[in-house]
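Sat 14:20. Reprocessing the chain from the morning session after the first attempt stalled halfway. Input below, unchanged.
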Amino acid sequence: MTTILLIIIYIAFIGLGVPDSLIGSAWPAIHTELTIPVEAVSVITLLISGCTVLSSMFSSKILNKLGTAKVTAFSTAMTAAALLGYSFVPSFWFMIPLAVVLGFGAGAIDSGLNNYVALHCKASHMNFLHCFYGVGVSLSPYLMSRALSNIGWRGGYRYAFYVQAAIAIMLILSIPLWKKSSSAEQAEEEKSINLSVLQMAKMSQVRLVWLIMLVTNAIEYACGVWGSTYLVEEKGFGTKYGALALTIYYVGMSIGRFASGLLADKISTWKRIGIGTAILAPAVIVMLLPLSGVFTVIGLFLIGLGNGAIYPNMIHLTPHNFGKEMSQSIMGSQIAFAYIGVMLAPPMVGLVSGIFGIKIYPVLLAVLYVTMVIALKCFIGCLKKQGKYDAKV
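Finished this time. Tokens:
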């Protein structure tokens, strides 16, 4: 893989992250202006995630037919168009079709780039790649917080559109480079085995990794979508500072992934996953304690720091755990279940908060964390029984 192509892939992941944190940071202002219930954000996130699940499930066939370069460029352009559309919506109902576009735009690119890097790059690149995703999701709430100070949330969506459109143009212009790259040509020629969902569901280790991916992303998006609202409604933050605090959360995620990439050549992938899981424990405790909003922001930062490293390292292990020939199908299914977590977590928080109040939010994060720890231990045990676990990977 050429250095230029690798840089392009990194920038593409910034584009993948840009839309993901906008709704969470903007929602306190959106639901006030459009006079809709705060829980309505769950409808938007449900649609985005559901469409992403569908596109991820079918990603293996799409990528084999069109190639990673074209799928990446087209998907990024789709998300840019949707962001521009959000800046003009007159009511909540116009947000629904745009959520569908955002969801379908995210799924195939996520699966394709992750599998491409898992097959052809070192673990450090996988972590740095997702660090750049963290740059994207950190950039959006920062832009939104700036916009909320003067021109409103619609301006924040326009700022994000400018960034996304520039990345889309770069990706379109780079398509010939993928064809010229010998590594890219090899990736285009490799045809993976297309496994059905039923075939994968019969494999115990696949079911467990599905659960891990679901829960780690549920934690990520429970914080990304509801963290700002929790600070505003429970801790007394203004909307501007709630959005800014969400930026700190995503910065923690980016730091966690960057640090994991630096450590990739020194400690194994499984150890890095263990470190991330350990960092989450004090973070959840801080969230549970009745402390001031400043400590809540620290807790969110630590959740981003610890949880951020788990997803890319699990992704990197896919060819090692399941074999290169099956990695694209299983990669797509893993990402689909990751987005099922994204799809379920925000409405779950919204539903439970609607009954018990937003104060229940930290308890839900604790439940998700315990579930993930149990699933990780069971997955490792399953791999050991099948002789597939290698602590040095």
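The chain has one domain: 3-185+193-385.
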